């Protein structure tokens, strides 16, 4: 029987772990199965942390986490490349900027070296503090299509049915939303992710993102990892608004966060931040192009700063 998930209230989170716990040897639980890759409702908290804190957190989570099996090397890492879609007037980015209560992102994502890697079409909604993410998986060949250069995302009728009916359902839903808002490629984002899963939790995930870069684009093509030209860093002091170049540390869980997550935040005195890679890339690119910013916002100006 799978051990029950431990959860804690805010009061319980004040109790720190007094001694290290033995690492539990368990099989990958539900949070690491494909069944939860399709659609998931969860809470996320992001933190900007100094690089010196990373090894200390790694040591702390050893009793509670296992490495993401998709990661390579002693430290479980892999590359993530994301194509962000938006409207011609940047409405999706502006929804984040204006802290709209219900908003969404349209992403096309691949992992690893690219090329032959699968492609994921992700529709990520945020309603209040809850993240609802659905995604469809297809091959790179299916994504590229063979329809006279028309993007398959906006022309699903040109694509053969996907083998998995759940993938096919979310592909059509993604395409419907993308077509309704007139979505177009706006930004490429690439970074290295170090990833862990809760060893005994129904759904708990922890990630460190570093070497975060961006590149404006108008193309539907997702470049392979060998394409290294034109990428601009955004985990710098300017990008992070910190006196150091750091990591983006993220905790993801269902409604009841595991106790060890709460104690981790308490122990390392972490302060949550609303960091968004796409919004940061937009801010840095518009600064690079010479736009002026008002005192009330990082991104909103009196002029059209669409990219």
Describe this structure in words.
The protein has 307 residues and is of the alpha+beta class. The chain has a single domain (24-288), classed as Beta Barrel (Hypothetical Protein Pfu-838710-001). 20% of the residues lie in helices and 29% in strands. The protein has helices at residues 54-61, 91-97, 140-144, 165-181, 237-240, 259-267, 277-288; strands at residues 39-49, 65-67, 77-86, 102-111, 119-127, 130-138, 184-198, 204-216, 232-233, 247-253. An 8-stranded antiparallel beta barrel has the order 1-6-5-4-3-7-8-10. A hairpin with a 2-residue loop joins strand 5 and strand 6 (130-138). The model is unreliable at 1-37 (pLDDT under 50).
What is the highest CATH level, the class?
Mainly Beta
Query: Which class do the helix and strand fractions yield?
Result: alpha+beta
Can you tell me the overall shape? globular
Which radius of gyration do the C-alpha atoms yield? 20 Å
Determine the CATH superfamily.
Hypothetical Protein Pfu-838710-001
For the record, give the distance between the C-alpha atoms at the N and C termini, rounded to a whole number.
53 Å
| N-to-C series of helices and strands | EHEEHEEEHHEEEHEHH
Task: Please mark out the parts with pLDDT under 50 across 5 or more consecutive residues, or reply none.
Answer: 1-37
What share of residues are in beta strands? 25-35%
Profile the largest sheet. 8 strands, antiparallel, barrel
Biggest sheet: strands side by side, in what order? 1-6-5-4-3-7-8-10
Q: Tell me the CATH topology.
A: Hypothetical Protein Pfu-838710-001
Q: How many separate helices? A: 7
| Strand runs, count | 10
Share in helix: 10-25%
Q: Any idea what the CATH architecture is?
A: Beta Barrel
- What is the arithmetic mean of pLDDT? 83
């Amino acid at each position: 029987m799978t051990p029950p998930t431990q959860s804690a209230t805010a009061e319980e989170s004040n109790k720190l772990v007094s001694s290290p716990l033995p690492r539990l040897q368990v099989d990958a639980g539900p949070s690491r199965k494909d069944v939860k890759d399709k659609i998931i409702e969860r809470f996320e908290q992001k933190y900007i942390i100094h690089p010196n804190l990373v090894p200390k957190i790694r040591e702390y989570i050893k009793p509670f986490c296992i490495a993401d099996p998709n990661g390579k090397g002693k430290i479980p890492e892999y590359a993530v490349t994301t194509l962000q879609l938006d409207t011609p007037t940047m409405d999706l980015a502006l929804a984040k900027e204006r802290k709209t209560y219900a908003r969404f992102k349209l992403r096309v994502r691949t992992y690893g070296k690219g090329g032959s890697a699968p492609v994921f079409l992700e529709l990520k909604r945020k309603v209040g503090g809850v993240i609802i993410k659905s995604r469809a998986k297809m091959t790179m060949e299916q994504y590229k299509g063979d329809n006279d250069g028309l993007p398959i995302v906006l022309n699903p009728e040109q694509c053969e049915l996907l083998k998995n009916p759940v993938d096919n359902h979310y592909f059509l839903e993604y395409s419907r939303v993308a077509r309704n808002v007139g979505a177009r490629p706006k930004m490429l984002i690439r970074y290295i992710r170090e990833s862990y899963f809760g060893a005994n939790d129904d759904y708990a995930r922890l990630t460190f993102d570093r070497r975060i870069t961006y590149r404006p684009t108008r193309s539907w093509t997702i470049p392979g990892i060998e394409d290294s030209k034109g990428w601009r860093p955004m985990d710098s002091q300017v990008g992070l608004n910190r006196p150091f170049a750091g990591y983006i540390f993220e905790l993801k869980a269902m409604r009841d966060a595991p106790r060890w997550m709460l104690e981790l935040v308490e122990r390392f005195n972490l302060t949550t931040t609303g960091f968004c890679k796409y919004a940061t890339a937009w801010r840095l690119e518009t600064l690079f192009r010479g736009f002026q910013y008002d005192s009330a916002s990082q991104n909103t100006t009196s002029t059209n700063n669409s990219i």
